[in-house]
Automatic annotation (TrEMBL):
Superkingdom classification of source: Bacteria
Pfam families per UniProt: PBP (PF01161)
InterPro entries for the chain: PEBP (IPR008914), PEBP-like_sf (IPR036610), YbhB_YbcL/LppC-like (IPR005247)
Organism of this sequence: Sphaerisporangium album
Descriptive protein name: YbhB/YbcL family Raf kinase inhibitor-like protein
Length: 173
């Protein structure tokens, strides 16, 4: 668990997990929404460990088509103590993709390792955490040989981010 905390702490400084730097607001150019989640509202229990439907559907817009070579998605949580946990990591999403269906991964995309050490959507369980669904437009496709673990993948996403957007859920309903 200490290793996970160190990984997340290292990634927090780059704005991938956590709030990001107050000076990096210029990256916020994507709009992220969901037909099942309202920004700032509770996360429906269906998408938590109490549910059975997997990841929620997401949509995004505002991707700069000429500069963007791939899209990445990071689902993480922050609790009152400031500890972060990555629940899902998907990268190398085709830049023409603008939505993700419920309980699915876009064709050709790669699921990375989460804080649990496994690949795939790891449904959140802590009722009072803030859950964030962040979409990143990247100026490159990530090399899976370099994205070997959570920390490495988050660092690669941070290095290649040209724009981002986020949808947040206040807690689990």
């Amino acid at each position: 668990m200490l290793v996970i905390a160190a990984i997340v702490a290292a990634a927090s400084g780059c704005g991938i997990v956590g709030g990001g730097s107050p000076t990096d607001g210029s990256l916020d150019g994507l709009s992220v929404s969901s037909p099942r989640i309202r920004d700032g509202a509770p996360l429906p229990a269906d998408f938590s460990c109490a549910g059975k439907v997997g990841n929620p559907p997401l949509r995004w817009s505002g991707v700069l088509q000429k500069e963007t070579k791939s899209i990445a998605l990071v689902v993480d949580a922050n609790n009152a103590q400031g500890a972060a946990e990555v629940h899902w990591l998907v990268y190398n999403i085709d830049p023409l993709t603008t939505e993700l269906a419920q309980n699915s991964v876009p064709r050709g995309a790669v699921e990375g390792v989460t804080s649990s050490g496994k690949k795939g959507y790891s449904p959140p369980c802590r009722r009072d955490d803030i859950y964030r669904f962040s979409v990143y437009a990247l100026d490159a496709k990530l090399d899976p040989k370099k994205a070997t673990g959570l920390r490495e993948t988050l660092e690669l996403i941070a290095q290649h981010t040209i724009s981002r957007g986020r949808l947040s859920a206040s807690h689990i309903e």
